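Quick entry between incubations.
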Amino acid sequence: MPTQKKSAAPIIEVKNLVKRYGSTTAVDGISFDVREGEVFGLLGPNGAGKTTTLEIIETLKQATDGTVLVDGLNVANDQQAIRERIGIQLQASGFYPTLTLVELLNMFAVMYGVTVDPMKMLKEFNLEEKAGAYYADMSGGQKQRFSLATTLVNEPRVIFLDEPTTGLDPQARINLWEVIRSINKRGVTIVITTHYMDEAEQLCDRLAIMDNGKLISEGSPTKLINDLLKRGFKRHTEVRAATLEDVFLDLTGRSIRE
Amino acid sequence: MSSKMDIRKPSQLAIIAGLAKYSLISSLRNRASYFFSLIFPLAFIAVFGLIGNSSSSITIGISDTVDHANPIYTTLQTVAGQSNAPLKLATGNTTDLETQLKQGKIGGILVPAADSTPRTPRLTLETTSGDPANAAAAQSFMNGITSQLNLRAAGVVNPPIAVENKEVSGKVYRYIDFILPGQIGFSLLSIATFGIAFPLITLRKTLVLKRMFATAVTPISFVISQCLSRSFQAMIQAVVILGVGVWWFHFSLAHGWISLLEMMVLSFLGVLMFLGFGILIGNVAKDEQSLPIALNLFNLPQMLLAGVFFPTDGMPQWVQTIGNHLPLAYLNNAMRDVATNGKHLNEVLPAIFGMLVWGVIAYVLAARVFAKE
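Done. Structure below.
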């Protein structure tokens, strides 16, 4: 669990957000805050409206109703200013196929109007050997690490990660969680969506759970579990001393394969 | 990191320049993009430039049994011996020549006629009904020769009725002069349509564009940067094709360097015009399957009717009219006027105007489609 003391000031404020597509309501009046410096999870089944919610906060879509503030700026009016302060990682997103990692980082720097030291960034993410390679030629774990690196080019205050470890093997997942934690330690607020509950439990300070366009629960993982237990939930399966993941890691080792 | 930073707004010009640079690097490394826009035109020019003008002369065979003292024989030898002669002679025994005649390699064979005598030498011209065009050419050629010889034998030096041939253009108009501007136009069209539409669709599908528009890049800046990088690459390719045509195949430039520069200006206008269509089609097509169909709907009619591989002079009038008003036709005809007929830019204003009109249509439609997204 993260150790840094987090401030309670909200860096993202969502108030009564509504998004309608014709007669369909994708987001039905939700409100929540993301506090500065925390790792916040937005969870929910497919079609719950979490992707739409995120896209509105990221200024990629426009709300039908409600207010969203990012770092005090309104997404309806100050899109450019917000874009300079955030970084996003889209799930299964690609990059220019015939540019090297160094060139890609430099290109992102141009797009933000900043300068970066590509080799330094690649070193931080253990990718300096691949500096002259194309994105497509890397392993899954390397691709995700590079994708994460590109979100930090403009030294954002908040980054949005969409299913960051989908498709990775257990070693790469654990490795990526470490990278995410180290980014958070630098003071970057992180908003994550994921379908992996162990990931949410490992990384998130607080979560919000959505379904059918509505927010159905909010709080830290511990609080949510305690609430469930208070409702009388009892686990039916016997709690074993070890899990299958422990078996896997014991047999194949913790070192990352790439 | 806890205080609000006052972030400077990056200049869109710097963004455009940077994106253009990386787009160009990326495109130059993509070898598939060279095929239609550079390799194919060069190969076509090489093949047809080497074939040369063999089709503009006829070949007549003379059998070994023809008397070399025959005045027809000596006349034909003299005509064939001239430089740039419209006549070529083939010799050999009658059977070999007849085989060549049936294969269409020669237009006709001269053999001694059955009633030939030394005082009245007569030859028979054998032709084949399987090749009427060549046979007719051979017949009229021989008729012309024998008429002249007969008049001279009758002592007529100045025949009362005569037709004089006068050549109007002193230039050698060769096939390369027709096809090179066509191939440049084709190259520009390929790279400005395929070269911008395919990346657009791929970048959109792989979410690269979505990620890009979450930065300080505006859609307009992105489009301008793509146009810049594509037109730069297109101009380089046009220079290469032109250089190959001039140095290896003696493509004629009426006013030398000035014609070359004027062709470059026309090429640049052409590229800008085609880019508009490339962007339009790239935004209209839904995915990578329907894109080639849409692009070919635009490209193929122009390749066939706008004078790329062959002139449209033999086609019905309504086809020619449509063909001559296509975007590529304006470009090709203007380039041919400049290079071969020595016109200057101010003399091809109608063609330039035509390109501007097409360009405006393309960009307005593209903007409309873009705004709907």
